[in-house]
Automatic annotation (TrEMBL):
The keyword Transmembrane helix applies. GO terms for molecular function: sucrose:proton symporter activity. Pathway: Glycan biosynthesis; sucrose metabolism. It comes from Spinacia oleracea (Spinach). SUPFAM superfamilies: MFS general substrate transporter (SSF103473). This is Sucrose transport protein SUC2. It is found in: Membrane. It holds the Pfam family MFS_2. One of its GO terms (cellular component) is vacuole. It is a multi-pass membrane protein.
Length: 486
């Protein structure tokens, strides 16, 4: 085994003063609050921004803010939190500030239509420029804030694990599980057609039922997020670090040095992760839009019947995402023993990528079947139950590879940084580059690619399926077996 690989003997060592599981559980639960908001973004915001008048092709460019902010924010936050000397801890200040910004951002997004109208948006026109501007600003702030919370939370878990590889795998598995919990809550809220009635003031002249539901969901998100963050930060003390990193090296110099010093296992991990996210991101951006447009045959800018059909499809997609979250939660709880059964994380990650490829490829026959049936149905009629069930089954299947995506690469990155003695925050921040750069690539090409093929989502999904196969093959061949089994 090369010196770049984790020391698997750590698995056999007795770790003194292990962190109680309930503390890891409490910190991991922050993922539920963050992911609730992400679930709303992924299921409702692409359709929402189109209702504000942004074209399908342009809506993909809005998603650029996520990867761009991730490239800048996560490494910066990780680097700074590794070196922060504060009486409140290293990770907690960033989690607190990020949570505050998330609350502000979701309020700005949810009330964008109302504020835009009060500043002069014409409700009779398809494009509401002021509402779109507020939405984009809120969307950028939200993605920046999410990155400010997620990376320090994962680094907090790595700190609590105290170089114990088994605890690191457990912590990342629990983080993935709570992401599933947040997804379940978010998608369940997003698929409820009359949730706004709980908070009736959310429906206004500028904000219809769909918009009011989104606004209500965000208000619920604020309550959940604040609750889990306060519980975690009050109940769990950060572990005492023997020596806070204080090398005096400027940030960009440190990042450059870190890239130069990355061992082969980490570079292999980056490569597999990059292709994995090229596979995921088109589906994450456009899954509910695909159901509304291509399975149900609706149009967010069409007549009343087409809009209603599109809304029905989006809600069916949100129900599908709820099934994704449920299978993600189950898989998150069993992924560690499953990896041992299959021969290690490398093999598990590789095999489930082929499941992802099959799911993405199946969007083609489902779309073609829906189009064929639609020719023989009355206008504005939903697809038959067999096609709807096929769509739901596809969504449920994606939860299996999603559990691996949300846990395995982060667990391996934590192990590599722990064994090399580098800071968990910076290592996980650099890991995020392998996620964000592919997302930028997909955001830039998916809109034009879909436009060339008639404003549909299938070309981007097929690109994702091909990338999933590549990621699976690479996971099985380039990640060192010993490190994957660590």
């Amino acid at each position: 085994m090369s010196s770049d690989e984790p020391n698997v003997d750590n698995e056999k060592q007795m770790v003194v003063d292990k962190t109680p599981i309930w503390k890891i559980f409490a910190v991991a639960s922050i993922a539920a609050g963050v992911q609730f908001g992400w679930a709303l973004q992924l299921s409702l915001l692409t359709p929402y921004v189109q209702l504000l008048g942004v074209s399908h092709a342009m809506s993909s460019l809005i998603w650029l803010c996520g990867p761009i902010s991730g490239i800048v924010v996560q490494p910066t936050v990780g680097y700074t939190s590794d070196r922060l000397k504060s009486k409140f801890g290293r990770r907690k200040p960033f989690i607190t500030v990020g949570t505050t910004l998330i609350c502000f951002a979701v309020l700005l997004i949810g009330f964008a239509a109302d504020i835009g109208h009060s500043f002069g948006d014409n409700l009779e026109k398809k494009v509401k420029p002021r509402a779109v501007a507020l939405f984009v600003i809120g969307f950028w702030i939200l993605d920046i804030a999410n990155n400010m919370v997620q990376d320090p939370s994962r680094a907090f878990l790595a700190d609590l694990s105290k170089h114990d590889h088994k605890r690191m795998r457990l912590a990342n598995g629990l983080f993935s599980f709570f992401m599933a919990v947040g997804n379940v809550l978010g998608y369940a809220a997003g698929s409820a057609p009359a949730l706004y009635k709980v908070v009736p003031f959310t429906k206004t002249n500028a904000c219809d039922t769909y918009c009011a539901n989104l606004k209500t969901c965000f208000l619920i998100d604020i309550i959940l997020l604040v609750f889990v963050v306060v519980v975690a930060l009050v109940a769990v003390k950060e572990p005492v670090i023997d020596k806070v990193i204080d090398d005096g090296i400027p940030f960009f110099t440190q990042v450059k040095t870190s890239f130069k010093n990355l061992g082969r296992p980490m570079w292999c991990l980056f490569l597999v992760t990059a292709f994995n996210w090229i596979a995921w991101f088109p589906f994450l951006m456009f899954n509910t839009d695909w159901v509304g447009l291509e399975i149900y045959g609706g149009d967010p800018k069409g007549n009343a019947g087409e809009k209603k059909l599109y809304d029905m499809g989006v809600r069916k997609g949100a129900l599908g995402l709820l099934l994704t979250a449920l299978s993600l939660g189950i898989m998150s709880l069993i992924i560690d023993p499953l990896s041992k059964l299959l021969g290690g994380a490398r093999r598990t990650w590789g095999l489930v990528n082929f499941v992802l490829a099959a799911a993405l490829a199946s969007t083609v026959p489902l779309t073609k079947a829906a189009e064929k049936v639609r020719r023989h149905l009355p206008p504005h009629t939903p697809p038959p139950s067999n096609i709807q069930n096929g769509v739901l089954a596809l969504f449920a299947a994606t939860g299996i590879p999603q559990a691996a995506t949300y846990s395995i690469p982060f667990a391996l990155a934590s192990m590599y940084s722990s064994d090399s003695g580098s800071g968990h925050g910076l290592a996980l921040g650099l890991m995020n580059l392998a996620i964000c750069v592919p997302q930028m690539f997909v955001s830039l090409i998916s809109g034009p690619l879909d436009k060339v093929f008639g404003d549909g989502n299938l070309p981007a999904f097929i690109l994702g399926a091909i990338s999933a196969v590549i990621s699976g093959v690479l996971a099985l061949t380039v990640i060192p077996p010993s490190s994957a089994n660590a």
